[in-house]
Amino acid sequence: LTTNTGTSWRYRGLSSSFIYSFALNGTNLFAGTGNGLFLSTDRGVVWTSLGLTWYRVYALSVSGTNLFAGTDRGVLRSTNNGIDWTPASIGLADTNVWCMAVDGMNLFAGTFGGVYRSTNDGAQWTPAGMTTSHIQSLVISGTNLFASTGYNVFLTTNNGANWTPVSSGLQNTIVQSLFINGGSLFAG
Predict the structure, then answer these.
(1) Nearest-angstrom CA–CA distance, 31 and 141
(2) pTM of the predicted model, to two decimals?
């Protein structure tokens, strides 16, 4: 944890093989790891395992009262802050879910085999393009959905019906992480 823009860091006690993702739902901080899912209610001082120890939790996303976990075995949904889980992967051709993004009723999942979209809280997924790409990161800004792959950054303004490369000016197009802050898109 840093509270001074990275000048100094404090260890927060969660030791796992890898920490892939974080999500915040109210005061609940969730961490997706290579050894399952963890919860902290005190800004990371104490962590409690929520199970899923047989899963690699690559992505976490919150939509209303739903918590979604993108794992190496598909998407899981919890309606009670990670206590109980329901599989939510019907329609996913690839169950390695690396990233997720939520915009209103649209839930997007990035997999080894493209982008998928659900409009019913993960009950059913349909392809949303890029089906031959390994999707590394997804972010949403207004009606813009950005996806990074192992070779480019792409944009769709129509929920995945059409994708356009938007990497002009990037010195390296191997982008593994995207982040939006206000009107700025950052690529790592």
Answers:
(1) 24
(2) 0.90
Q: Which residues contact 75 (CB under 8 A, 6 or more apart)?
A: 68, 69, 87, 88, 89, 92, 97, 100, 109, 122, 125
Q: What are phi and psi of 92, to 5 degrees?
A: -75, 120
Closest by CA position to 148, among listed 108, 94, 88: 108
Residue 17 has a pLDDT of: 67
- For residues 55 and 185, what is the distance between their CA atoms, to the nearest angstrom? 30
For the chain (188 residues), the mean pLDDT of every run of 10, in chain order, is 83 77 90 91 88 90 92 94 92 93 92 94 92 90 89 92 89 84 85
What residues contact 169, with CB distance under 8 A and at least 6 apart?
Answer: none
CA atoms within 13 A on the CB side of 187: 20
